[in-house]
Amino acid sequence: MKPLPIAASTMTNACGVGTIDVRSALIRGESGLTRNDFEPAAVLDTWIGRVLEIDTVRVASKHALYDCRNNQLAQLALVQDDFPVAVEAAAQRYGRDRIGVFVGTSTSGILATELAFRAGSLNVSGAGEALSSDLYRYRHSMMATTEFVRSYLGLAGVALTISTACTSSAKVFGAAARAIAAGQCMAAVVGGVDSLALSTLFGFHSLSLLSRHACRPFAADRDGISIGEAAGFALLDPGGDSDVRVVGVGESSDAYHMSTPHPDGAGAAGAMRAALRDAQLAAGDIDYVNLHGTASRANDIAEDRALVDVFGTGTPVSSTKGATGHTLGAAGVTEALIAALALREQWMPGTTNCARVDPELASAVLLLPHSQRLLRVMTNSFGFGGTNCSLVLEGGR
Amino acid sequence: MIGIALGGIGVCAPGMADWQEARTLLRSPEAQPSDRFPKVAPSWLPAIERRRANTTSRLAVAAAMQAVRDLPSAEVARMPTVFSSADGDGEVLTTMLVALAQPKVALSPTLFHNSVFNAPPGYWGLAAQSNAPSTAVSAGNASFAAGLREVHAQIIATQAPVLYIACDVTRSIIFRDASTAPAPFACALRLLPADAAQPAGGQYLDGWFIDMDEDGANAARMDELPGPFAGNPSAMALRLLAAVANEKAAVIRLPYLDNSWLTIRYFP
User: What is the per-residue pLDDT across B137-158, written as a single tens digit (0 to 9) for each?
Assistant: First the structure.
């Protein structure tokens, strides 16, 4: 692909609000995970990556119809790091209708409907009020957050939501790159937003995938995932000047099982190789890999096998999910922006919460943050439905 | 603008078990589809997945199978997939919301994995044994048009065929009045770069462009779709399929964002 500069970016998750806070937590090896207190799912004995500041946010009155946890999180993230200023400058340069918006989410604002159902104010049919079309359209529907972000930033170009479970906001980079190459837009805002919801907490519990601790990716004693919430956004501007560029996107499918990865990581390896091909690079050109690394037993084994297959055992890798939690549809962009930070500042994050690497895993897992010369890095995202997406980022000028 | 050729079509909806039935209906404007729900037990899926698959996935896989019926399986497996839907599977959503509202919540693992928006392309990947990329996109009532734009961009990027699947199974939960809930609808289009199509006998879509039309006077509206499908965003495909069925050149306008329209010229 043609290198695509990341002209501006911002991220918010359990580690902090805005890039500087997230950076500080990662450098110090701190985890943003806390014991689950998210009502009415607090009955689940697990840890979560909660963004406490969401509770103080209401979406701007102009967009009051969109007010829900997912859009509050989107707005909280959007206003950090002077992101709207950079988008506005691009809008002035290209025109509002020439900037696309591509947002990944797994569940959008489903929590709004879940809570209404529990409150008994809605039911399926017959007695009681059916789901209001406004609640559904502006808060819950798959397009709700994308539409809110586009409207909040005052953009009027092409837009869509990608919802491919935990690869959603990795795939937005590919969709935006293709839309720009096809002339559908001149630049693009890409992002991912997923907030805590009952369906995901109880859903992962039903699969026995929730950790009873703060999750410990790639650790010998890992026992499952910690769900987190997050939002992240990037302005991709082919005409921009940036010290970090997206240079490869690789996508693949497992064709194995709906919720379990291929045991040998065949699909994951396919996505990594496709990203290298897209970037016209060899495995040896990659200096660091930010793992999908969810801390589920099966996922980490599959990813490790895929890494060994593609890179051997020498390339440094780490998972930041012990710090942020698994932020599902926001994980792709969150980890792409952590990888961008690594390139910009020449250090690699550690694997927070992992005290001892599982001896059955062969990859060179970094436990602690480590400074090193980095030119190109990869970030991995895999998800339900057997969906895989790897991105390659390049630093320097 | 690059032309795009239409290589194969699949339809799966009440009264339209396949493209042959849909074509017959679309050729007679007075005809109303029956509400007979097609038998959908996609034989391509392994038995266990066939039992687990939700309605959206069954309809989507059935439509996709029709659209690639004439191709060798290795070629099908190589084809990237774009899935679009406004609302995903309203049946699964409703069941899940009811379960989550119980005092003691117990979700079934199958229900949860079926609730992911990309379940249909996931099942299609299993059915076709495909490791090719697949994506799942949504844009409210503009979903069908937005998915076509993604297909267009992919074809420009790869110069290779893409399988486009659109499906909505909306239910009363999404509508204030349950009686207005439209019938489910799925279709699949095998789309390829025009210059790769057979020089004769190819069917072309050309010149997609966005067309602002504030009053929408001339555009297809969702409530103009055949009776049971009015209000089903994926069924906007019927505008395009009607032109194909009647083998007539046509200008088709599909709802896009902000009262704009995606305009497609169709040449049989």
Answer: 999 999 999 999 999 999 989 9
Q: Are A377 and A289 in contact (CB under 8 A)?
A: yes
Confidence of residue A32 (pLDDT cuts 50, 70, 90): very high
Overall domain count for chain A: 1
For chain B, state the CA radius of gyration.
18
Model confidence over A146-165: pLDDT tens digits? 999 999 999 999 999 999 99
Angle, vertex CA B83, rays to CA B121 and CA A190, nearest 5: 110
Q: What is the ipTM, given to two decimal places? A: 0.96
**Phi/psi at A246 (nearest 5 deg)?**
-80, 120
Q: What is the average pLDDT across B183-209? A: 69
The closest CB to that of A179, out of B94, B112, B153, belongs to: B153
pLDDT of residue A259: 87
Which segments of chain A does DSSP mark as H helices, in order? 19-28, 69-78, 83-94, 110-118, 133-135, 144-152, 168-181, 198-206, 266-279, 297-311, 321-324, 331-345
Interface test with A, best of B58, B61, B116 (most A CBs within 10 A): B116
Distance, CA of A114 to CA of A92 (rounded, Å): 40
CB-based contact A203 B115, cutoff 8 Å = yes
Alpha-carbon gap, residue A127 to B224, rounded angstroms: 30
- Measured between beta carbons, the chain A residues lying within 8 angstroms of B96 are 199
Range of the domain at A291: 4-395
pLDDT in tens, A91-100: 999 999 999 9
Taking an 8 Å cut-off on Cβ atoms, the answer to whether A199 and B154 are in contact is no
Among partner residues B101, B114, B174, which is closest to A117 by beta-carbon distance? B101
Query: What is the 8-class DSSP label of residue A143?
Result: T
CA angle in degrees (0–180, nearest 5) for A383-A386-A392: 60
Q: Are strands B260-267 and B203-212 parallel, antiparallel or unpaired?
A: antiparallel
For Cα atoms A351, A352, A353, give the angle at the middle one, nearest 5 degrees. 115
Question: Looking at residues B172-185, what average pLDDT do you find?
Answer: 68
d(CA A234, CA A193): 12
Residue B216 pLDDT greater than 90, yes or no: no
How far apart are alpha carbons A131 and A124 in whole angstroms? 8
Q: Using H for helix, E for strand and C for coil, what is the string for chain B?
A: CCCEEEEEEEEEECCECCHHHHHHHHHCCCCCCCCCCCCCCCCCCCHHHHHHCCHHHHHHHHHHHHHCCCCCHHHHHCCCEEEECCCCEHHHHHHHHHHHCCCCCCCCHHHHHHHCCCHHHHHHHHHHCCCCCEEEEEECECHHHHHHHHHHHHHHHHCCCEEEEEEEECCHHHCCCHHHCCCCEEEEEEEEEHHHCCCCCCEEEEEEEEEECCCCCCCCCHHHCCHHHCCCHHHHHHHHHHHHHCCCCEEEEEECCCCEEEEEEEEC
User: Domains in chain B and their CATH numbers?
Assistant: 4-267 (3.40.47.10)
CATH number, domain containing residue A146: 3.40.47.10
> Does residue A127 surpass a pLDDT of 70?
no
Longest dimension (CA), chain B: 63
Report the candidate in A4, A10, A41 with the shortest Cα–Cα distance to residue A192: A10
